[in-house]
Specification:
heterodimer; A: mainly alpha; two-stranded antiparallel sheet; 2 strands; disordered C terminus; B: mainly alpha; two-stranded antiparallel ribbon; 76% helix
């Protein structure tokens, strides 16, 4: 039981799905209840990970390893470190809340709907737990199919276009990534004489820098499309706008993190010399900065509420990739925290849009105005989400963005200066959105009698708000959990970084507590 | 040649004898025992018995190879050879024959053409395939090819009163005969070069000659063109969409998997045998043909509205992928050819099985729109079709991914990076048209209320193909081990 805990976390949603398929499709209430039970169970079984996790241990914990396909050297290999711990917890929580939020939003083909969510849940958790590249790739692709159906069946008017675009874009990237994986796999055979997909084995490879760079670009296509980095982001607004609310939430909060996680887990540790090549670092950093600014500017222009949130994701994910390619402890730790933050705050923003959309069936910003008078609780929740997303101190977004900027500043001041602009613009479009929809007089008669949040809807937001405040006020445990894995990545990419940096003032890992000080 | 028919000869030939005997027995007993059309489904029992007996004989051969730790058994003075390669393909043929026979009765009853010869032809065609996989002599191979092809000419035109079926049969016959002519011309040149019809002798004679010898080039080109016709690689693919569309769907299914597998066995035997020394000549040419096949197959499939035609074009692109395994040519590549043929057999058969169920008394059921809303009417069929289509596209964890995995890996091992990039990108294109069917099934409005034409045999066959398509994807090890010992060395 103990040594199989990760498998339990991984397969609880799948087991829930299999039972769900046996339920009669006519009994809608039963299906809804069971889906929620399964989602909640998925979250609850992931909680013990927090207590079992040893933050002082090096490397991966709770490792499970079974030979899966002997002749290919493929293992069923799971393990967890601080980075995957946070992302798995985010996944299980968001997955459950997405199911809970669908209670009254979706009424047709319920059984398939919830089955897709639960299947996707297993796929996403698998991506964050797999330590075997083959296994990782299987989960990575498994996620695509349920999301295709969630968008394509239960989505908006242009759902079919959006669904296939999402599928094809990500697939095109990931098959090229597969070639990169196979290259490493084959090189490992040439150097060590046996085939394996195990990450820790592949890390022993000594590859010429040029080959590393080719593989890096292959991985880049797979991960950058998923993130999505500029200029591969065009699938994202379509997918987000057409997806049902819960689909958007999972897509933004978890699916996009698969890309950033891929950079952290695979690109950097497996291809350290390529990752430090100036050309590559410059390209990725500037693509990130363009994404930050471009996403924010486009958000300012949006008339559609949901599209605004979608483009804001492009901007926020730009911060995450900027942090990663600052290639120092602050940047990377900040990036992981910001990934969790984005999951929380953008998840909330999509839920917020979903709630008025469910009541009014429009997402045009100009259709709304003065909702604070009609839906006071809603407007408070929205304020939390908006401020957390805009990076207000004492809320989560601030911690992430601040740490990333600190990392970027250490690496290159110009990067930080450009990125700061993004924060200003972010505050602008979010505050302006809030002002146009919530404040002032009620401009549209149809909004006069909108019901406020009910108890179930509040229950969806409550954990997210609580988590946002916790990270904002007391981020210490998060940085502690991340310290070891982040240090490991940095040491791998820049050998000797910590020895030489201990003489410098800014960049030792001991500066992490200063961030905590800044937040309090 | 001291004896005409030794015990070894018999041991090697017996599966083919059994297949032929049962095939002929069906022709005899058909009108003696089963005068009424509705009784004829019992003939499937003959097919099953024929397959079981020859399967038993294959099993004994496989056991014999394993027990004595030998690579091959040769018979008839080297005209026939039983090795892992031949046995692997023969397992595939038997599985395909059984599945097709199992699903045919309901379909043929609906078409009102349920006649006994059909089952006989399946077994006789299978007998021809045996010689294609096990032959090591030009004449044996050619006779096997023609035995198979003649059976298929008849089966493609089996719907006598259907214009499309007649037209398809005629086209297939003309182009098939033409390509056989080209092929046999190439064989005659090979014989002229070497003075022998044995593949091993020819290989030696060809290798001894300079590469720019015009005679060698002539032999290479004509033989290759003939073979590429048979596997419907671009630019020799024109017959395939018409033949696939017009033929009865059950025959299309059989044609697209078994005949294709047999032709690939034949092609690999020739290219890795007599033509092996000319690799630097044919490798680039085959690479171009493989890329062309993927390009034309995938792009043409996008615009098809008839599902059978769509699958015909998709099968052209699959032929391109399999050829890439041969282009790579290392052990992984040949193993990839085997694994790919195996998974392709089950996933493609599965997709056709769903189409067979869509053919109902008053509905042709071949248009993309006929799949519309299938999930509302028969969710089980819709989800099985989804699995087959995902597998055809090569999305893990289905069998199709394992097939593509080997091809990609082989290309990387042999440093054909650009071919690998092209091959992987066409996966995305393929998803586009396979997902047109998925979209139709899952998001379209229900096309009609007429229930699907299911039968017990069809359900069994669907279960088998569906389970295998998933099982090979999730736990491929046993199948990979089988392919590993079957690589042509």
């Amino acid at each position: 039981m103990n040594e199989h805990w990760l498998s339990i976390v991984l397969f609880t949603p799948l087991a829930g799905m299999l039972v769900l398929l046996l339920l009669p499709s006519s009994n809608k209430t039963l299906i809804k209840i069971w889906a929620n039970v399964a989602g909640l169970a998925g979250f609850l079984v992931s909680l013990p990970l927090v207590f079992r996790f040893d933050r002082n241990a090096e490397g991966f914990q709770m490792v499970e390893k079974v030979l899966w396909i002997p002749s290919l050297g493929v293992h069923y290999l799971l393990g967890i470190d601080g980075i995957s711990l946070l992302l798995v917890l985010l996944t299980t929580l968001i997955g459950f809340l997405a199911i809970l939020s669908s209670w009254s939003a979706v009424e047709e083909r319920l059984k398939q709907y919830y089955a897709m969510f639960l299947l996707q849940q297993t796929g996403m958790i698998g991506v964050f737990l797999a330590l075997d590249f083959f296994l990782f790739y299987v989960f990575w692709e498994v996620v695509l199919v349920p999301m295709y159906f969630i968008i394509g069946v239960w989505g908006g008017p242009r759902k079919l276009y959006a669904a296939i675009k999402f599928f094809l874009y990500t697939l095109a990237g990931s098959v090229l990534m597969l070639l990169g994986i196979l290259t490493l796999y084959f090189q490992h055979f040439r150097q060590f004489g046996f085939y394996t997909f195990e990450i820790s084995e592949l890390m022993k490879l000594q590859l010429p820098v040029e080959l590393q760079q080719w593989v890096f670009w292959a991985f880049f296509l797979g991960f950058a499309i998923k993130v999505p980095m500029f200029p591969f982001h065009t699938w994202l607004p379509d997918a987000h706008v057409e997806a049902p609310t819960a689909g958007s939430v999972v897509l933004a909060s978890v699916l996009l993190k698969m890309g950033t996680y891929g950079f952290l887990r695979f690109s950097l540790p497996l291809l350290p010399q390529a990752s430090i090549t100036p050309a590559i670092v410059q390209t990725l950093v500037w693509l990130s900065i363009v994404a930050i600014l471009y996403g924010a500017l486009v958000s300012l222009m949006q008339k559609d509420w949901k599209k605004l949130v979608a483009y804001s994701s492009v901007s926020h994910l730009g911060f995450c990739t900027l942090g990663i390619f600052a290639l120092n402890p602050n940047g990377i730790a900040g990036s992981v925290i910001q990934q969790v933050n984005h999951g929380i705050s953008t998840g909330m923003l999509f839920l917020i849009v979903g709630i008025v959309y469910e009541r009014r069936h429009t997402r045009e910003i100009k259709e709304y105005g003065g909702l604070a008078h009609v839906m006071p609780i809603y407007s408070i929740v929205f304020a939390f989400a908006m401020l957390s997303s805009a990076g207000l101190p004492l809320l989560n977004g601030f911690i992430g963005e601040f740490t990333i900027l600190q990392g970027a500043f250490e690496a290159n001041r110009i990067w930080a200066a450009c990125a700061v602009l993004g924060i200003v613009l972010g505050a602008a479009y979010l505050l302006w959105l809030y002002q146009r929809t919530m404040l002032g007089e009620v401009t549209n008669e149809k909004n006069r009698h909108l019901p406020d949040l009910n108890l179930r809807e509040l229950a969806v937001f409550a954990p997210l708000i609580a988590w946002a405040i916790w990270i904002g006020v007391y981020p210490k445990p998060y940085f502690e959990v991340l310290e070891k894995p982040v240090a490991q990545i940095v040491e791998r990419v820049r050998p000797g970084y910590f020895n030489s940096a201990s003489t410098a003032v800014v960049t030792a890992p001991s500066t992490l507590p200063s961030v905590r000080g800044g937040a309090q | 040649m001291s004896q005409y028919y030794t015990a070894t000869d018999h041991f090697v030939l017996v599966p083919a004898i059994l297949l032929a005997l049962f095939g002929i027995a069906i022709l005899l007993f058909d009108f003696l025992l089963f005068p009424l059309a509705r009784q004829r489904k019992w003939l499937i029992l003959f097919v099953a018995l024929g397959a079981a007996f020859s399967g038993g004989a294959f099993y004994r051969q496989q056991a014999f190879l394993a027990r004595n730790a030998i690579d091959r058994i040769t018979a008839f003075d080297g005209a026939l050879v039983i090795d892992g390669f031949a046995l692997f393909f023969n397992w595939v043929f038997l599985a395909a024959s059984l599945i097709v026979a199992l699903v045919s009765y309901k379909y043929l009853e609906i078409e009102d053409e349920h006649r006994g010869e059909y089952y006989g032809l399946i077994l006789l065609a299978n007998c021809g395939m045996f010689f294609l996989a096990a032959g090591a002599d030009l004449v044996t191979l050619f006779v096997g090819l023609e035995l198979m092809a003649v059976c298929f000419y008849v089966m493609v035109g089996f719907l006598r009163s259907d214009k499309r079926s007649n037209e398809a049969a005629l086209k297939y016959l003309l182009l098939g005969a033409f390509s056989s002519g080209v092929l046999v011309y190439g064989f005659s040149v090979l014989y002229g070069i070497s003075g022998s019809t044995k593949l091993a002798d020819i290989a030696g004679a060809v290798a001894a000659r300079p590469h720019d010898d015009p005679l060698v080039l002539l032999a290479l080109v004509t033989t290759a063109v003939g073979l590429l016709f048979k596997i419907s690689a671009v630019p020799f693919h024109m017959w395939a969409p018409d033949a696939y569309e017009g033929a009865p769907t059950t025959v299309t299914a059989y044609l697209s998997v078994a005949s294709k597998a047999a032709s690939f066995a034949f092609l690999v035997r020739i290219f890795m045998g007599p033509l092996a020394s000319l690799r630097d000549l044919w490798e680039p040419a085959l690479a171009v043909i493989a890329v062309l096949s993927m390009t034309v197959g995938n792009l043409a499939a996008i615009t098809q509205s008839n599902v059978k035609r769509l699958l015909a074009y998709s099968s052209i692109s699959h032929a391109g992928y399999i050829l890439l395994g041969l282009v790579a040519g290392n052990e992984t590549g040949i193993q990839g050819v085997l694994v790919y043929v195996l998974v392709y057999t089950f996933m493609n058969l599965g997709a056709f099985l769903v189409l067979i169920a869509l053919r109902r008394q008053e509905l042709l059921g071949e248009h993309v729109d006929d799949l519309s809303g299938l999930v509302h009417k028969s969710p089980g069929y819709a989800f099985l079709m989804l699995i087959f289509l995902l597998s055809l596209a090569g999305i893990p964890p289905t069998a199709g991914f394992i097939g593509k995995y080997f091809i990609f890996l082989a290309l990387i091992q042999t440093q054909h990076y650009w071919l690998a990039v092209v091959a992987t990108l066409y996966v995305a294109v393929a998803v586009y048209y396979y997902f047109r069917l998925v979209r139709s099934m899952f998001t379209g409005v229900l096309a009609d209320q007429v229930p699907l034409a299911t039968s017990f045999g069809l359900q069994v066959a669907l279960a088998v193909t569906g389970v295998l398509t998933l099982a090979i994807g999730v736990y491929p090890q046993p199948f990979l081990s089988l392919a590993e010992i079957s690589v042509l060395r």
